[in-house]
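Methods: example folding runs. The two proteins below were folded one after another, and each record is reproduced exactly as written to the output file, sequence line first and structure-token line second.
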Amino acid sequence: MLVSELFWAYLVAITLLTVTPGVDTLLVMRNTGRGGLADGWVTSAGICSGLFLHATLSALGISILLVETAWAFSVLKWAGACYLVWLGIGSLRQAMARGNEPGRPEQPAPRRRVNRRQSFREGLLSNVLNPKTALFYMALLPQFVDPAGSVLQQSMVLAGVHFAVAMAWQSGLAWVVVRFRGMGASVRFKRTLNALTGGFFVAMGVKLAGN
């Protein structure tokens, strides 16, 4: 069984982790601006699904082996860094795309058809390739697991709690972005959002590669 007296401490820890701005936050905001609420929700579902993989690796001890094996951790780090830079370049290209013609009033940003597989895949990869998430799960989850019970089962339950908290928070962020879109937000808003998130993604990728 889970160590019930520590559950609330775990809930506080993962809530603080979830609401701290990072790659997941920016990706949900960018994709919501790109394709609306459905795009943001599916992206969030992909991000949160990656938590179960991290929990499984933590329970099986693979994450410890990964972190202690320098070359394997370097591969994960560089894969994550390259993926962030790739996402950033994509956002910057959209930001620099030709907008409304000069002299014409700006129109609301057109809502593109959501490719749910792409949105889910982007969210999943951003989480799975994040070495910081692997480190967090390796260090945190064992503190809230009863070694006398099933470690894997307890880890899945804890990941499920994290899934629920993260989905609620990121869905709220998606709703806020949609509200801004609906309050006279134009192509300029969409391009600004792409420029900001793209710059952050590239910067985070470069920083991750340099660590």
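Second run, written to the same file directly after the first:
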Amino acid sequence: MSSLRDAIVIGAGPAGMTAAATLSEGGARTLVIDEQPAPGGQIYRAVERNSDNASLSAVLGSDYADGAALVARMRASAAELRFSTSAWRIDADGTVWTKADGKVERLQARTLVIASGAMERPVPVPGWTLPGVMTVGALQIMLKDAGLRPCGRLVLAGCGPLFYLFAAQCLEAGVSDLVLLDTAERANLIPALRHLPKAVFGHGPGYLRKGFSLMAALRRRGVKIHRGVSNLRIEGAERAVAASFRAGTHTMRIDLDLVALHEGVIPSQQIARSIGCAHRWNEEQQCFLPILDSMRETSILGVFIAGDGGGIVGAMASAHTGALCALAILKRLDKISDTEFASRKAVAQQALDAHLTIRPFLDRLYRPRDEMLVPADEVVVCRCEAIRARAIRDVVRRGCLGPNQVKAFLRCGMGPCQGRMCGPTVSAIIARETGQTPDATGYYRVRPPLKPVSIGELASQYEED
């Protein structure tokens, strides 16, 4: 086992990079672990490599390019960086088991910063398991990573800021046959407007201008947008060939070559839950969030969560949450004085608050439809084990009152994704059927390994010991 570090940061997105740089600059011995071959996370994926690609940079926009400064700051620090490295087990005492190049290693730190970010909310609609159905995030990753753009007729179905951002990026990338199916409920607008006065402060106006600019660009290019879409169904036998839906009072069907779904993002829960961090249901974001104090420390002493993993805040705000985590750790390690801590904390908190003024408005405006959260009986919920919503409802009526009991009855959540894709939906279905609150219903019990690890890889650790 390597010597004790002051902090291990898991994830090299905006939150993780900022936390790592701040810690290292403050004199803390810091290690950064990330599965990707380079820093940036999903939002700034491949930003270093793409900085010399003028055409792709123009497609991805200035916000994406801003990530290069965060990468440069982290690389300039003394933080130890390990990429292409998976954390497959993490313990509350600061032990982190990693896997890289076929070898397993056990690392130890006084504190942990979990900056694993967010995942796209599952969109369980009829036909979502067909070939030719992807997520908007997956298509954007392909664009950032390899400059790949969709061919043929592309249909984007869903809602949220990323939904419209990627639509605009598609146009810039040369996609000519694009149709949008906006699933946001028109009834969301009135309650969302109650949060608009707050959104005109801080950085809220900037976010609003970006949103209006994206909408205007789509209108100028004549992109067909169907609004208030419900009853979405992907049709096809061997692959997706069409989408049927209801828009207003009309039932429609359009042919397609590729469809991408998106209903916003939710925190990645696996690491925090595997450690035992307490979570609570958040009605505004319609997901479970870890319980954090003002410095982003979890219910477990010494374990912090930075970025969207602690609640969806966006890339710029995530960086400031990383700074808060790092300052708390530096203070605990006596690396900074009380006066410096208070001063820097106030600056980071003010910057974070300025980005959060828009969040209540966006959360309410793009709240997913009920049919996306609690799908119909025939819809596959657990893709790994091919379990439909009907089967989940059946075992609940037979007495299963929680996700872990459903897992035992149906193997739901026991496949390769380990419940990442079905967990939110299983909890929602059970809560609806039993009349319990989401908190009372709970979530899967997550255990290691968080990522696959072979017996041979485990054996390599003991051979070295």
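Comment on the second run: The longest helix spans residues 338-356.
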